Amino acid sequence: MGRLHAWIGILVLAALPWLGACSERQLARIAFDRAPPPSLPDPLREKLTERKPVDVSRQWLPLSRDGLHDPANPWLKFKQQPVEALSLLPPDPGVGNQVLWVDAIEDGYINPRTSFTEQDPDGMLVMDMDIMRVNTSIMPMVKFPHRAHTIWLDCDNCHRNNIIFKPQRYGTKINMFMVLNGEKCGQCHGAVSFPVTECYRCHSVKRTGIIR
Amino acid sequence: MNDAKSLLRWGWLFGCWFAVMPAQAEYGDVILNKYAELRGMRPVIFPHWFHRIRFRCKVCHNGKEDGYGFIMRAGSNDINMAKIVDGRYCGLCHNGEIAWSPENCDICHSGLPGLQPGIQRGHETKGPAK
User: Fold this and answer.
1) B48: which chain A residues are within 8 Å (Cβ-Cβ)?
2) A112 and B55 Cβ atoms separated by less than 8 Å
3) B111, β-bridge pairs
4) In angstroms, rounded to a whole number, what is the distance separating the alpha carbons of residues A152 and B115?
5) φ, ψ for residue B114 (rounded to 5)?
6) Do B63 and A156 touch (CB under 8 A)?
7) What pTM was computed for the model?
8) Given A65, A99, A113, which is nearest B55 (Cβ)?
9) How many Cα atoms within 13 Å fall on the side-chain side of residue A159?
10) Could you read off the pLDDT of A29-83 as tens digits, one per residue?
11) Which residues of A touch B74 (CB under 8 A)?
12) A157 and B59 in contact by Cβ < 8 A?
């Protein structure tokens, strides 16, 4: 009898850490959806999980060492680390998030929602039209691709009340002082989209002759 | 043998470099601390990278007034918990239906004390945050 009780005791003790782990797993599930975004088509999801999670050419600091998050925060371990998600996306080493965000959508790595609740097929009004800005002084001309911008943004984001860009030829004055001050292109570029250190990504078209 | 050695050497170099990498926020992280610390909470850290994998920009930056969308300028949005619980700003999603509800304070209020509000790692930006 005594021996049986001892065995039961040992079993219960052995099960304790496992029970603890269970509740932790539960917590993690509540806290964050760690999987790739739910809107991803299934073959792509498989492709993503097959990939190696760490890319040697790119590095992201863990959240506990980013100088913002408090390492003592008990929720920190449930948060998604940048390396978990960003290392699976098209690389852009050393620039911004080190991810080519436009390519990530265009090549089907991610399919972010176009509305709060669900994927809305007509949610984005993608416009495939390039705008050349030719008055760029000694720099190559700027080719502005509407397509790359409209897969993320709505027309209204930039053209609303003509505040950022007036949708009219020669309607908007832009210079690099404005951009560096966070106006015009600088409202996003240098904040969330690729930074203005990448001069030639915008100034991409060499002047080959005289352009009217 | 030589391969293994060079691999080890590179591994060491790599490890050392990683160990001395200076603390650096992820590009586009926004610190919200207009009210948080005044009212006894830690600053909020909003990771743009996390959210843009799941939502396109226009979902939150939808041009709507009165807290049903975000103005694209750090510091321009007057966010407080009353509005969030009311279903505005972060509360548009963080309502327990689309994303976890705001009762889990420390998930968002996770910053080190004394952080200045603003967007991280961009160049100088104008606007109310500056």
Assistant:
1) 192
2) yes
3) A69
4) 30
5) 85, 10
6) yes
7) 0.77
8) A113
9) 11
10) 444 444 444 455 555 555 555 554 444 578 899 999 999 999 999 999 899 999 9
11) 191
12) no
